[in-house]
Design a protein that fits this description.
The chain is built from four helices and 26 strands. The protein is mainly β. The chain folds into two domains: about 15-20 and about 210-375, no CATH class; about 25-210, no CATH class. Strands 16-26-25-24-23-22-21-20-19-18 form a ten-stranded antiparallel beta sheet. The chain starts with 13 loop residues before the first strand and ends in a 6-residue tail after the last helix. The model is unreliable at about 370-380 (pLDDT under 50).
Length: about 375
């Protein structure tokens, strides 16, 4: 499928992309909810492990509060990224952890962290799982985006090698200010076992798509190239009467890859006819059976002002084959539906010097969801 007769003149060999991506350095995480036995301030902890470019490991602990906000306790030099774009009213507290032991592999799960919170209380978190050989990890698109009231990006966060902590083979200790709290229990049996709602990913791949932008766009000279990189992002083009249109964008990190594909290919915004309105489809996918996000795009041009809209209106379509997980995704609709509430709007104006200025942002819209699920989702991370 191709958009027909949409350009003025021939291509000048230039390329402009309104799309951008930011990759989080977080590699592993574990979530420990205790909402049925909460602290006076907190009801869930999330421990994150990031790896810097020099191989240095850094730890952060997000303490989710009963009012929907969060305190982020982090080591000096922790690469804060998604924490500021997703969380509501977060407070960032650089912290020296009294103890910090984190062994996280397919064969071993052993976590021990202690620190003092902003209320000068000792927080102790310990998890030890003794039997993991029969587990079959799964892949999940984290619906963390559902908690953000004013998102700065579309958070496409893949949780690979995801598992729940088995009740019979795992010790979970949550202590705040000397008081112990019971971990929550998950409502479905997974891997033929009863489980805590404590869950973890051994391999995370977080991509923020189109972070909010308010500046000039880069103009790249590409000549007749149909494949090239802008920094680490790879573009595949399709020519429409000589004009470069975006067919596919690939965003890598290590062995993982996030791809965005357009059908028809996304137009060359530098040469669109005036008073034109175009529509198409897009999809966002990754490797290792992570499913796909699908939606539509719109683009119009009026008097040198280009307006673009992306709406992932079909949500996330999982590819999980196991019946119990398919049932979970069906019963808890937020897993599949949260992207439907996101819309990206961009306005691009070409000035007299031939430069393109873009002002873009994401917004949330309401969509049909039971009230009890909305209230639950807005107070917790869901992955």
């Amino acid at each position: 499928m191709v958009h027909q007769d949409i350009y003025t003149g021939k291509s000048n060999g230039q390329f402009i992309s309104p799309f951008s991506f930011k990759i989080d350095l977080m590699r592993q995480l574990i979530l420990i909810p205790f909402e049925k036995d909460p602290d006076i301030f907190y009801n869930q902890f999330e421990v994150q492990l990031s790896v810097l470019s020099d191989g240095t490991y850094k730890i952060a602990v997000i303490a989710y509060k009963l009012n929907g906000s969060a305190d982020v306790y982090h080591q000096q030099g922790y690469p804060l990224a998604s924490q500021s774009s997703i969380l509501n009213d977060p407070a960032f507290i650089e912290t020296i952890f009294d103890s910090c032991f984190f062994t996280f592999s397919p064969a071993d799960l052993d976590l021990s962290i202690s620190f003092r919170d902003v209320h000068n209380r000792a927080v102790i978190l310990k998890i030890a799982e003794r039997e993991r050989k029969d587990k079959v990890p799964f892949t999940l698109l984290a619906p963390v985006g559902v908690i953000s009231k004013k998102p700065l990006s579309l958070p496409v966060y893949y949780m690979y090698l995801m598992s729940f902590a088995r009740k019979n083979y795992c010790d979970v200790i949550i202590s705040v200010g000397g008081k112990f709290h019971k971990p929550d229990v998950f409502f479905l049996p997974v891997d033929k076992s009863n489980n805590y709602f404590t869950r973890y990913s051994l391999d995370t791949f977080n991509v923020d798509i189109n972070p909010a932008y308010n500046s000039f766009l880069e103009i790249k000279e590409i000549g007749n190239k149909n494949s090239f990189n802008i920094e680490s992002v790879h573009y595949e083009l399709k020519r429409n009467n000589g004009h470069p249109e975006i067919k596919k964008i690939s965003v890598p990190r290590d062995r993982h890859l996030c791809t965005v594909e357009f059908s028809p290919s996304f137009p060359d915004i530098s040469a669109l006819k005036n008073n034109i309105f175009l529509t198409g489809d897009f999809s966002i996918a990754s490797d290792m059976g992570a499913g796909v996000i699908k939606g539509t795009y719109q683009i119009s041009n009026k008097q040198n002002e280009i307006n673009i809209k992306l709406h992932p209106e079909l949500g996330w379509i999982p590819r999980e084959r196991r019946l119990i997980l398919r049932l979970m995704f069906k019963l808890v609709k937020i897993f599949r539906d949260w992207p439907k509430s996101y819309i990206w709007d961009a306005q691009i104006i070409r000035n007299e010097n031939g430069c393109y200025f873009m002002d873009s942002t994401w917004k949330r819209i309401t969509y049909a969801l039971p009230t009890y699920l909305l209230s639950w989702a807005h107070s917790r991370p869901f992955f």
